[in-house]
Specification:
Blueprint (H helix, E strand, L loop, with lengths): L11 H11 L6 E2 L16 H13 L12 H12 L3 H4 L3 E6 L1 H16 L4 E6 L4 H8 L3 E6 L1 E2 L4 E2 L1 H9 L6 E5 L12 H14 L2 E6 L8 H4 L1 H9 L3 E6 L12 E6 L3 H16 L8 H10 L2 H31 L16 E3 L4 H11 L1 E2 L5 E3 L8 H11 L1
Parallel strand pairs: 1-12, 3-4, 3-7, 7-8, 8-9
Antiparallel strand pairs: 2-10, 5-6, 9-10, 11-13
Helix pairs in contact: 2-12, 2-13, 3-12, 5-6, 5-11, 7-8, 8-10, 13-15
The structure holds pyridoxal-5'-phosphate (PLP).
Length: 395
């Protein structure tokens, strides 16, 4: 059975982390993985999460199965977090299931779309999060891409995007990043969301919104703007969310898949199918992360604490964006890097070439993925001078 197997190359981002760990240079900087780090380079457990975990240890009464939808309290809390008091909740048109992270949500969304329409196509932005292609292919979908980022001018290529989306046939799916686009950091403006929503309504394609960074861009409400607009405008929508980043629950694996139908009756049918998709996959989601999130969101005190901690993470990342741009200028870089301050969330493309990326690694122990995507959260006041000098030296 195994004799014909050939080794596969390591995942480029995970492979970078291994190289970083093995590097003995005390000045080394990891700008690879999309993990929040504080100014000391640590990814701490949020204090609100610690408190919720303690509450769970003290109060948990059973570890019996929860079922394929996971925790109802978590699912309800996630609906409110994503949608506020949106009409789709009052109209009972949404069915949400807890999933193993945002990746689990995307996989179940893909399998559900395949159930609706075998062989369906999903369109993803070019570029997009590296795992989208693999997850949707593994779920049995065809994956195509639409233009998104203008590498030359370091901005959104919205005209090309909308032209491409005009060609998407009805009943195909289109993946959109709710905020903090990974890897470019370029998000749609409110007017652009409006245009995409109107186009989806006109053509009848199905938006699948990937919201892995709610609260990391401009704020919890602001980051959900596009998603809520889509829910205002369309009868059908899928949302895949993740608590990995905003609750710092990376390894607990918790997120949610939400499917919105055009009526409560249709939502009931959807609500019978999605759990069946889960049942033959991983059967049921893990419960620990969901219990933490529902404990935080159902306590006013812990929610306030979470808002504060989330804001601290968001402000730190935005602060580092500005600091890097300032330090590059201080180190004599004349090239305009101000686009970094106009982008959102954890990532930006530096816009340097693969040879320069490699030199940063070989000569300066600075680890960046080959596309020149940097994880801004890896920058700190302590390492930004060294980083800016090193970038200046390879430019
Ligand atoms: N979607 C995007 C755009 C991401 O960047 C990530 C993680 O980096 C995910 C989904 C999945 O996150 P997780 O499965 O860790 O919750």
């Amino acid at each position: 059975m195994f004799s014909e197997l050939q080794p596969r190359p390591a995942d480029p981002i995970l492979g970078l982390s291994v190289k970083f760990a093995a590097d003995s240079n005390p000045n080394k900087i990891d700008l690879g993985a999309g993990i929040y780090k504080d100014e000391h380079g640590k990814t701490p457990v949020l204090a609100c999460v610690k408190a919720a975990e303690q509450f769970r240890v003290d109060n948990e009464e059973s570890k019996a199965y929860l079922g394929s939808a996971g925790s109802a309290a978590f699912n309800t809390a996630m609906n409110t977090l994503m949608l506020g008091d949106h009409k789709v909740i009052a109209e009972n048109r949404i069915r949400t299931l807890s999933t193993p992270g945002g990746t689990g949500a995307l996989r179940i969304a893909g399998e559900f779309i395949k159930t609706c329409k075998p062989g369906a196509t999903i369109w993803v932005s070019n570029p997009t999060w590296a795992n989208h292609q693999g997850v949707f292919t593994a779920a049995g979908l065809q994956v195509k891409s639409y233009p998104y980022y203008d590498y030359e001018n370091k901005c959104l290529d919205f005209d090309a995007m909308i032209e491409a989306l005009k060609q998407v046939p009805a009943d195909e799916a289109v993946l959109l990043h709710a905020c903090c686009h990974n890897p470019s950091g370029m998000d749609l403006s409110r007017e652009q969301w409006q245009q995409v929503a109107e186009l989806a309504k006109e053509i009848g394609f199905l938006p699948v919104i990937d919201m892995a960074y709610q609260g990391f861009g401009e704020g919890l409400e602001e980051d959900a703007y596009g998603l809520r607009l889509m829910a205002d405008t369309l009868d059908e929508l899928i949302i895949c969310s993740s608590c990995s980043k905003n609750f710092g629950l990376y390894r607990e694996r918790i997120g949610a898949v939400s499917v919105i139908g055009k009526s409560a009756e249709q939502a009931d049918i959807i609500g019978s199918i999605v759990p069946a998709v889960v049942r033959v996959n991983y059967s049921m989601p893990p419960a620990h992360g969901a219990a933490i999130v529902e404990t935080v969101l159902n306590s006013d005190e812990l929610t306030q604490q979470w808002y504060g901690e989330l804001q601290e993470m968001r402000d730190r990342i935005n602060g580092m964006r500005q600091l890097l741009v300032n330090k590059l200028a201080e180190n004599g870089v004349t090239q305009d890097f101000s686009f970094i301050t106009r982008q959102n969330g954890m990532f930006s493309f530096l816009g340097i070439n693969p040879e320069q990326v490699q030199r940063l690694q070989d000569e300066h122990s600075i680890y960046i993925v080959g596309s020149s995507r940097i994880s801004v959260a890896g920058i700190s006041p302590d390492n930004v001078d060294y980083l800016a000098k090193s970038i200046a030296s390879v430019l």
